[in-house]
Amino acid sequence: MITEIDQRYMALALNEAKKGLGRTSPNPCVGSIIVKNDQVIGRGYHKKAGTPHAEIHALAAAGAESRGATLYVTLEPCSHTGRTPPCCEAVARSGVARVVIGMEDPNPLVQGRGIRYLLDRGIAVTSGVLEPQCRQLNWPFIKHITTGLPWVVMKAGMSLDGRITYNGRQTGWMTGGETSAVVHRLRDRYDAILVGAGTVLIDDPALTTRLPGRKKGRDAHRVILDSGLSISQRAKVLSGESTARTLIFCSVEVDTAKCARLEKRGICVHRVERGVGGGLDLHQVLRQLGEQGISSLLVEGGAKVHGSMLNQRLYDYAHLFYAPVFAGENGIPFQSGYSSSGRDTAHRLTEVQYRRCGEDMMVSGKLMYR
Ligand code: AOF
Ligand code: ZN
């Protein structure tokens, strides 16, 4: 039975898990709390792939006091030996009397085996506590481990009338300073950021993460879709300024010598087939990114990329920022290529959230395709 007390402690375990956001990929964010006589005696979270899991930190903090206690963990304890040994064994050895779990581990190597192991040893197990919140924290992990594809998020900043520029191709942000800060915090949580060659040509973005204050952002990998491999050799995304890798996807028709010139500069060039509508096969691009361990991808445009991704139903989630301005019809629309025939067939967002960013409005939600 799930009690209010269980939910309260699971909320604390979730807070622990969130400390690892953006740092654990391709592993999940996981938090754990150990409670005895209504006192928290240990806590921990997963910090980075290859290092100890959340429960191991919490058990170490609680020490011998763990005996007879209740362990809360946002994800089922693992039952396999990966880069670290199985947590379910350590949990059983500690002598905890009860384990409360947020969600089952979707990893095919685990999938309920951790829970089975604990039950077989006479440990009480309650699962599914604050499950929607625990799942939300790990949408990228869940998708990547079950499909091999990254969690793909559309990001765009635009005017009230959906334009990303005022007049033709001029550059600069439509939205204000608070939106920029939110975007940089977003970038900090993704494994990779993707833009099309057109955006590189017009904006020449560095695609680095610049967080306010002391905290240094971890740059996401930079991914560019450039079917003809046409971007300038001097583009900022190709510069050595960032420690993150730059990956370019171009068409199989591009001359291999041209690819080799960029590869010599440490840039990974992938040649892919053309897909729907003559553009690069985006599904293939996502598959290759997934194979490289990229479990979350923030797509920052431009219009053609957003339109193609929408048409091919590849977005999982969207963050859209609206500046309170009418850019007018000379501005470039935020997407091109996608159209709908009416209210019942238009793709839309569900579980929509609204947040104010200075003068701008942030609209976020899951993509619902029809
Ligand atoms: C947990 N607690 O804190 C994490 C878990 O290579 P390894 O050994 O780190 O194993 C990675 C897998 O372990 C990962 O895919 C997921 O199934 C589980 N991650 N499990 O019980 C944790 N990070
Ligand atoms: Zn584990």
TrEMBL record:
UniProt xrefs under CDD domains: Riboflavin_deaminase-reductase
Gene3D superfamilies: Cytidine Deaminase, domain 2 (3.40.140.10), Dihydrofolate Reductase, subunit A (3.40.430.10)
Binding site for NADP(+): G157, W173, T199, S227, G302, A303, K304, V305, H306, G307, S308
Binding site for substrate: R187, D203, L207, R210, E300
Pfam families the UniProt entry points to: dCMP_cyt_deam_1, RibD_C
NADP listed as a keyword: yes
EC number: 3.5.4.26, 1.1.1.193
Positions of the CMP/dCMP-type deaminase domain: 4-117
Requisite cofactors: Zn(2+)
Residues bound to Zn(2+): H53, C78, C87
Keyword line: Hydrolase, Metal-binding, Multifunctional enzyme, NADP, Oxidoreductase, Riboflavin biosynthesis, Zinc
One Gene Ontology molecular-function label: NADP binding
Family: In the C-terminal section; belongs to the HTP reductase family.
Descriptive protein name: Riboflavin biosynthesis protein RibD
Source organism: Desulfoprunum benzoelyticum
Lineage: Bacteria, Pseudomonadati, Thermodesulfobacteriota, Desulfobulbia, Desulfobulbales
